[in-house]
Amino acid sequence: MGTDTKPVNKSDKVKLYDIDRGSYPSNRGDVFRSLQVFECGICKALTNEVVMGGSMGYGVRTICPNSSECWHHELEDKVELLEQPHPKAYKDALKKEIDQIRKKNKAKTKNDIKGEPDSKLKDDITNTRSFDPDNKKCTHY
Ligand SMILES: [Zn+2]
Ligand SMILES: [Zn+2]
After folding, report:
1. Cα of 90 to ligand 2 centre, how many Å?
2. Which ligand sits closest to the CA of 105?
3. Residues 2-31: pLDDT tens digits?
């Protein structure tokens, strides 16, 4: 007791903006970190990097850190397929396949979290698909 218990390691201090309160950088192209955590509906990765604007129109954009990977493209195709009407047996098989792809790529699934966001404030990632121009083998355009 009596010692100063303030955390010592503050080198990775990042300013987090609360999107729900509406005060955050809002010029097109601004990039900042949010108090909210965004989860990818495809691979379940988490990020709190927010990009204003972008190719899909102006606004708060969050991009899955794995969205330019081909395994992610394949996974997204299957997740989209699952949303369409299919016989139950087909859907069940598809669900299993999706689970397997997620498991297989778990080690490669990167999160992109900086600072200490509030994990209770969870929202969906807006941009789940992007393309890496260096990835010449990609056929998912
Ligand atoms: Zn993802
Ligand atoms: Zn691809």
Report:
1. 24
2. 1
3. 455 555 555 568 999 999 998 899 888 899
